Amino acid sequence: MEYAHDIYGHLGISYAEALTYLVDTEYGGELVFPAVPAVIKPSAGSMVVWRDTDEEGLNDFSTLHGACPVVMGEKWITVRNFRSTGQEGSCMADQDSHSNDKIKILKP
After folding, report:
1. What is the mean pLDDT of residues 6-28?
2. What is the C-alpha separation between 52 and 27, in angstroms, rounded?
3. 29 near 63, Cβ under 8 Å?
4. Is 89 within 8 Å of 40 (Cβ atoms)?
5. What is the DSSP code string of 20-88?
């Protein structure tokens, strides 16, 4: 059971996450883990990594987290989810990697 609807569910469960702060936030924007309890203040270049599952691979609801609103400044982050299965299939660009044909870009 995931916390919310997961559009990437076909890639398997998210067993860990890594959040990196890209800028300093003047005031607000903390990452909060209420069950732990832990409050992490944004700091440019810092990374927070946590597991989403327990030893049995089940959701660990103590890692439920949220963000406080940014009161002053901006908050820029990048998040990486680590999932139990990777991308499956092939990349269409790799199929003709030895072809001299130009790639056509279609407009939507």
Report:
1. 85
2. 27
3. no
4. no
5. EE-S--SEE--EEETTTTEEE---TT-EEEEESB-TTS-B-GGG--EEPPEEES---EEEEEEESS---
Q: Please tell me the pTM assigned to this model.
A: 0.68
Cα gap 23→33, rounded to integer Å: 21
Q: What angle do CA 57, 59, 65 make, to 5 degrees?
A: 140
Contact 83, 8 (CB under 8 A): yes
Q: Largest alpha-carbon pair distance within the chain?
A: 57
Q: Write the single-letter amino acid at 54.
A: D
Q: Is the separation of the CB atoms in 61 and 107 below 8 Å?
A: no
